[in-house]
Write a structure and sequence with these properties.
- 91% of the residues lie in helices and 0% in strands.
- It has 4 helices and no strands.
- The relative contact order is 0.11.
Length: 290
């Protein structure tokens, strides 16, 4: 029956060392892959972060423009409201229209002048008519002056109306422009929101890849420590075996030297020859080195 050959301690240690090296290299490869993936994620995140900064600057520019146009809109509206208040005050000072009153008064004056020229009046009636005519003429003069002032104010009010209309139109235009910039800012803001979400997801993914890298690296370091320990053990066993082999060779050389010394020693050779001769005489055969 053939006896099964058992593995030596050195063989077992070398096999264990090779297994540890394979595991360490596998974890190092896994760590390297996780690091590469992490770096790719971080590069993508940096690229998107740069784009995010550009979008934020763009949005800020739109918001600033909208703010400028809203300020202009408010300025025009404020001026228009101030002119509306001025127009109200001007109209309140004018009161009712004097045109109709002046027209009626002039008609009465004409009638009174006609009566004075055509009617037969007593002296007393004529004097009363003249006094009344003077009062009407005086009032007509006052109304003429008042009408001139009212007409001037009316013209000013018309100018105010035109200015107010123009101011409100300009305010509306600025308002629409502000809305356009606000809409653009909102669109860019929505873009930034989506981008921030993507960057956040990349940050989480990058952290996960980094943790995977650290974990694989830690396992590789842990096994590397065992590799160093096992390599030292292999080297120690190999050293012991080499030392044992050297010791055996040295012992063999020593023995060989001793044998040669004995064999070639002349005195020993003579003694050996004498003994051999004696043995030959006694037995008829010679045994060398007995």
């Amino acid at each position: 029956m053939v006896r099964k050959k058992t593995r030596s301690e050195l063989d077992q240690a070398e096999i264990r060392l090779e297994s540890l090296l394979e595991k360490r290299d596998a974890f190092n490869q896994e760590a390297q892959l996780a690091r590469q993936e992490r770096d790719m994620v971080h590069d993508k995140k940096r690229e998107l972060s740069a784009k995010l900064r550009e979008l934020k600057d763009k949005r800020a520019a739109f918001v600033s423009q909208a703010r400028v146009h809203r300020a202009k809109r408010d300025e025009f509206q404020t001026k228009a409201k101030a002119l509306i208040e001025l127009r109200r005050k001007m109209r309140s000072h004018v009161g009712g229209s004097v045109t109709q009153e002046l027209r009626n008064l002039k008609k009465q004056i004409q009638q009174m002048e006609m009566r004075q020229q055509t009617a037969s009046l007593t002296l007393s009636e004529e004097n009363d008519l003249i006094d009344e005519l003077k009062e009407h003429l005086k009032r007509a003069k006052e109304l003429e002056s008042l009408k001139t002032e009212q007409d001037a104010i009316s013209e000013e009010v018309k100018d105010l109306d035109s200015t107010i209309t123009e101011l409100f139109a300009r305010a509306e235009k600025e308002h629409q422009t502000a809305l356009e910039f606000s809409a653009q800012a909102q669109a860019v803001h929505q873009e930034t929101v989506e981008l921030v979400s993507t960057i956040s997801a990349l940050a989480i993914e990058g952290n996960a890849k980094h943790e995977a890298y650290l974990e694989a690296r830690a396992k590789a370091d842990e096994i590397h420590a065992k590799v160093v320990e096992m390599r030292d053990k292999v080297l120690s066993i190999r050293g012991a075996k080499r030392a044992e082999a050297r010791e055996s060779r040295e012992l063999l050389r020593t023995q060989n030297r001793s044998v040669r010394k004995v064999l070639y020693d002349e005195k020993k050779l003579e003694e050996s020859a004498d003994e051999a001769l004696k043995a030959l005489l006694q037995t008829g055969r010679v045994e060398i080195g007995r």
